[in-house]
Amino acid sequence: MATGRFSITSSLVSKGRYLRPEVREARAALITEEKAKAARNERAILPDERREILSLTVRLETGHPELVLLTGDTNYYTIRTLQELRMKKGRDKPTTVARYFQNHWGMSTLVEARGDDGQPVLVFSRRSARVDFYPGCYNVTASGAMEKDDFDALGQMNLLRVATRELGEETGIQFGSSDTYEVLGLGYNPEKSDWNLQTLVRTNQPAREILANRGKAPDAWETDDLFLVDASRPETVIAALRKHESEWTPTGAAAADTYLRRVFGSVDLAA
Question: Could you tell me if 72 and 16 are in contact, meaning their C-beta atoms sit under 8 angstroms apart?
């Protein structure tokens, strides 16, 4: 069962955008480097086919908010190339750096499970030192990219498929028939030029069972640990966020903030 405070409609309108010669050259060099890593049996970037956001519109005509996204094809090689070029060109040259922005996107999924006393607990993770982005940082339960197979022929995405795949791969959590899925919000990380869907899975699976099964997940190496936070009161969640103030991923902290506001109303993390 999937629920949400707003709906999202997407469509594919472009087979990709024109890349400047310098971008094509840098991408070719990156591909050569990553193929050499793979030949040495080292972990390498895969040519994952993905989608970028070309435009975003909000419709309110029906009284139910609807995000309408127009998307185009891209891939992870292009995303990484543009990220590296932005860093090299420097953030103090906005007119130059703007050439290398691409609105790619992913999903952050926070899980609310049940504690031993039946009260809600949030399942957070700590990323391992082996991941490319934000190694060692605290995060929501699982996060991942929108892959090409998550979209149908018209460009409409299957959000639940993305969330359940990433949860299963990284934590071993399986979405049950009585579990619910909700889109909390949409955030943006300018550092990575990354739109991020903030989503929530509420499950009746015992939290301790989730911790016990983590090591069985196919991609358990992406996280060093899962930890539980009492979610019956906002104070306990805020305390957990502040305990590692400078060690959270931007998208993880933003999703936790959205959760607090949705469940408890006006909550000021900075107070």
Answer: yes
Q: Which domain holds residue 164?
A: 2-264
First-residue to last-residue Cα distance in the chain: 36
**Does 120 fall in a domain?**
yes
Can you tell me the distance from the alpha carbon of 160 to that of 2, in angstroms, rounded to the nearest whole number? 7
Q: 188 with 172: CB under 8 angstroms?
A: no
Which pTM value belongs to this model? Answer: 0.85
- Residue 259's domain is classified under what CATH number? 3.90.79.10
Domain annotation covers residue 102 = yes
Query: Tokens in use for 36?
Result: 């050499």
Condensed to tens digits (0 to 9), the pLDDT of residues 85-135 reads 988 877 677 778 888 888 888 889 999 999 999 999 999 999 999 888 889
Give pLDDT tens digits for 46-84: 888 888 888 888 888 767 788 888 888 899 999 999 988
Structure tokens at 57: 């519109």
Distances from the Cα of 25 to the Cαs of 12, 28, 172, in angstroms?
A: 27, 5, 40
Report how many domains make up the chain. Answer: 1
| 269 assigned to some structural domain | no
